[in-house]
Amino acid sequence: MIDNQIYPQDEKLISALNILKNKANHVFVTGAGGFLGESICRFLCSANIKVTGFARSDYDNLEKMGVRMIKGDIASKDQLIKAMTGCDLVFHVASKAGVWGSKSDYFTPNVQGVKNIIEACKKLGIKNLVYTSTPSVTFSGIDEAGIDESFPYAKQFLNYYGESKAVAEKMVLEANNTLLKTVAIRPHLIWGPNDPHLVPRVIERAKAGRLKLVGKQDKLVDTIYVDNAAYAHILAAVNLFTVNAKCLGKAYFVSNDQPITMASMLNKILYCVNLPKVTKRVPSSVAYFLGSLLERIYLLLGKRQEPIMTRFVARQLSTSHYFNIDAIKNDLGYRPLISIDEGMLRLKKSLENK
After folding, report:
1. Could you tell me if residue 330 is left (phi over 0), alpha (psi between -120 and 50 degrees) or otherwise beta?
2. Most buried residue, 12, 219, 231, 256, by most Cβ within 10 Å?
3. Helices (H), 255-325
């Protein structure tokens, strides 16, 4: 039985985990120490499902949770094969995220890593692979207002992250066959308690007086609470194990299904730490020019740290990106478990306890 003290209200989650427990004997999670990876591991461990986590560093919290942790590099196929032996389901969550870096910085872990995962699955006879992708695979710098999975991959990318993830996602979906069943999940702007990316960056910039809105018009964006993203992955895994699975070889956008303006989202985060609302704005053309200029300067100087603005960030902050998630609703039965407001209450409580 699942430890109901962890998520007593999430009956749908408990049901999905119970089904998965009867299907999967041993689950492998790459990027187990990351924000989403840890949430997936937490869910699996709450159902007493055997989990092996793979990460570049040590994570005592995961060991205490019951995860068997293995330290390694997804760019090494030999390390993966050794670590994945005995598993029958893989959640490939690990990737290099961010908006700045060289092509090799992103293609080595994100593309070569996926190639290694697929080859390891085939060598070991592992038949089920859930891949964590991103909506950035379709983003070329223009509004994406209510698009669905029929929207094509971007022809031009504003950074190597989106490009590498698009190449990797294609590899995963093309690998789907009778011997290896695959599916890709595209969560957008994951946030929640212990978020190491969006939330601390917003708070840090606000405290420094550097947080600004980009563009004259507030555009709608989709976000997703971290446990909802993990739940979508669990549902995908359950579907892979079913006869006549609907998700085979498909990619799915997933979100909180609550499009919100970037200003509203930022201000909800700031409210959690009693900071004033963001009101300052910069024209989108100015932000894009600054991002382009800084990218050139950083390249010339060989700087590896991320510029305060890039072309990708400028476009992300000034365009719409919200998605039609009917496909994941219809195929996998996904509905967000935690609303934005409920998630913000949890975020506020976690920040108060720090």
Report:
1. alpha
2. 231
3. 262-271, 284-301, 311-318
Give CA 289 to chain center in angstroms: 28
In a domain, 149, yes or no: yes
Q: Please report which confidence band the pLDDT of residue 136 belongs to, taking 50, 70 and 90 as the band edges.
A: very high
Domain count, the chain: 1
Residue 70 pLDDT greater than 70, yes or no: yes
Residues paired with residue 130 on neighbouring β-strands, in sequence order: 91, 183
CA 55 to chain centre: 16
DSSP 344: H
Specify the DSSP element, H or E, that contains 119. Answer: helix 113-124
What is the CATH number for 23? 3.40.50.720
Residue 102 φ/ψ, nearest 5 degrees: -80, 170
Residue of 59, 131, 161, 225 with catalytic role: 161
Average pLDDT over residues 286-300: 87
**Does 107 map to a domain?**
yes
Q: Is 151 a domain residue?
A: yes
Q: Rounded to 5 degrees, what are φ and ψ at 223?
A: -130, 175
Domain of 78, in residue numbers: 11-194+223-258+321-338
What pTM does this model have?
0.94
pLDDT, mean over the chain: 92
User: 5 falls in which pLDDT band (50, 70, 90)?
Assistant: very low
Amino acid letter for position 341: D
Residue 305 is assigned to a structural domain of this protein = no
